[in-house]
Please model this.
Amino acid sequence: MESTRGSAGAAVRGTSPLRQEITLRVSGGEIQGDLGLPSRARGTVIFAHGSGSGRGSPRNQRVARELEEVGLGTLLLDLLTREEAEIDAVTGRYRFDIPRLAERLTASVDALASRPETAGTAVGLYGASTGGAAALMSAAARPDAVRAVVLRGARSDLAGPAIRRVRAPTLFLVGELDPEVHAMNAASLSDLEGTKRLVVIRGAAHLFEEPGALEEVARQTRSWFLKYFPPRSPQEGRP
Model:
């Protein structure tokens, strides 16, 4: 179940997407998300953030804006309830509870299917760090709904055996200066049976803070979702 609060402006592709704050009721309470929908969005990408982060992540917000500019919707989520986030900030209790995070992410996939403005359109998952493991588990749980997955610096090792059930085309993005995660992603790549690719971002470390690194992440992400999201209508599919 979900609720929506507030909106701003008309939805215009590439300029002013419709923005709404949504609330999803999940086991354990409620989680919040920010939904941005350009006019006639081809699909919506749900963002699963890394440990200790949430929908306010500046890196994920920047990638989300890039996706909106090419007509893709975005949903940036807090995967923890407010109470859980307060506890986690002190104890770190929930940030590695990947099944919990994946369950919330899957609930958001289901919620998009029930919203009039997103029903019947493609859904993609973008996961960073531990959010990447949650994205893989959610893609495995909803193989018919999730059309594509992008993982940035993902702790893909935490997805466990679920990774073998992922059918969506999956792109791994890893920093050249992040050898541990590179090794994890390379191992996960071999476990995937479907379409897959690993791209190493030159000069980038785990957080992709180096000049040009996040821009390349956004470019690769945009290209992957545009490639695997179908056109919204026959008119959009014409050259």
